[in-house]
């Protein structure tokens, strides 16, 4: 926030704030979306906090796979919290105005958390690749030090390379228009209001997406291709089923995450003709993964499911039943 404020103080803007108009074309009845959005946000917060508490309290879950999952839960909480309170304020209280500093800070937070989620998915894919393809070497490769180094590298990579996005947006000259057809401050949504050339903003956003998220996606799918190739060599059907079950939950969420990113990118090309679709997809992509991730893991991972039941005090009830 301080960085964004310093940029604003050193720049000249004719507009003093931006106005988030909400969902284009359905302003009259967009308030009906407030209830499901609020429920999804509460689910994201509650489920991810439950994941963090469970992994912290259960000694048998202090393993790299679950440590990466807890990091993903923190990222999911951050991603949803950067946008959902403002979206709900727009839908409930018509609080459409947002200061320049808050808008640029939100641009940074959304991009950083999105890319961090992609990076954590890559770490989890590498973890499953080593566990399944090199099980004997796994304890010596994926250590606690490995988890710390991988996490720090993802945070530094995405945190630092995302800084130019709001800086470049703040350097544009916003001379008259300040109404954004969106519920949040997206980089291209804000810079499209500028009166000067925004080609550098578009290029950096494109390079950032392909350099980070694109490379992560390629490496993730390469890891799972190698996992599937290795698993199919097993002679036992039971061994194949067990190996695939350990990474199926990861693959489901990864497919959803990257498919949504591709759909958002494609629909942005038709944004002027169908402005609602990319805006709606962008908004859902910020809240659905944080609420979906813990649910899938809780259902697919038996150790985690049992740990959650014990934290909630349901362990004895389930065992008696």
Automatic annotation (TrEMBL):
Principal location listed in the UniProt entry: membrane
Gene name in the database record: LOC101724271
Domain G-protein coupled receptors family 1 profile: 47-297
Keyword Methyltransferase: no
Gene3D superfamilies in UniProt: Rhodopsin 7-helix transmembrane proteins
The protein, known as: Olfactory receptor 688
Subcellular location: Membrane
InterPro entries found in the cross-reference section: GPCR_Rhodpsn, GPCR_Rhodpsn_7TM, Olfact_rcpt, OR51/52/56-like
GO cellular component, one term: plasma membrane
PANTHER family: OLFACTORY RECEPTOR 56B1-RELATED, OLFACTORY RECEPTOR 56B34-RELATED
Keyword field: G-protein coupled receptor, Membrane, Olfaction, Receptor, Sensory transduction, Transducer, Transmembrane, Transmembrane helix
Keyword Secreted: no
Membrane topology summary: Multi-pass membrane protein
GO biological process, alphabetically ordered: cellular response to lipid
Residue intervals passing through the bilayer: 31-56, 68-93, 105-126, 207-228, 249-270, 276-299
A GO molecular-function descriptor: olfactory receptor activity
């Amino acid at each position: 926030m301080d960085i964004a404020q310093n940029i604003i103080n050193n720049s000249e803007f004719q507009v003093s704030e931006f106005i988030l108009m909400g969902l284009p074309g359905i302003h009259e009845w967009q308030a009906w979306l407030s209830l499901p959005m609020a429920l999804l946000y509460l689910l994201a917060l509650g489920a991810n906090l439950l994941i963090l508490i469970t992994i912290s309290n259960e000694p048998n879950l202090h393993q790299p796979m679950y440590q990466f999952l807890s990091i993903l839960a923190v990222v999911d909480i951050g991603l949803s919290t950067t946008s959902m309170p403002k979206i709900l304020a727009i839908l409930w209280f018509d609080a459409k105005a947002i200061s320049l500093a808050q808008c640029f800070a939100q641009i940074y937070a959304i991009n950083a958390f999105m890319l961090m989620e992609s990076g954590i998915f890559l770490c989890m894919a590498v973890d499953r690749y080593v566990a399944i393809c090199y099980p004997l070497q796994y304890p010596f490769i994926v250590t606690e030090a490995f988890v710390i180094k991988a996490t720090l590298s993802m945070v530094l990579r995405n945190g630092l390379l995302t800084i130019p996005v709001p800086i470049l947006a703040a350097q544009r000259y916003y001379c008259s228009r300040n109404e954004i057809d969106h519920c949040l401050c997206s980089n291209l949504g804000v810079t499209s209001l500028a009166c000067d050339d925004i080609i550098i903003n578009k290029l950096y956003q494109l390079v950032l997406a392909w350099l980070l998220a694109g490379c992560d996606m390629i490496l993730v799918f390469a890891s799972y291709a190698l996992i599937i190739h290795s698993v199919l060599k097993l002679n036992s059907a039971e061994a194949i089923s067990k190996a695939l079950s350990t990474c199926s939950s990861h693959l489901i969420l990864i497919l959803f995450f990257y498919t949504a990113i591709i759909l958002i990118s494609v629909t942005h090309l038709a944004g002027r003709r169908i402005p609602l679709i990319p805006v709606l997809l962008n908004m859902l992509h910020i809240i659905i993964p944080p609420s979906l991730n813990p649910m899938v893991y809780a259902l697919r991972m038996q150790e985690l499911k049992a740990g959650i039941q014990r934290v909630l005090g349901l362990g004895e009830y389930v065992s008696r039943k």
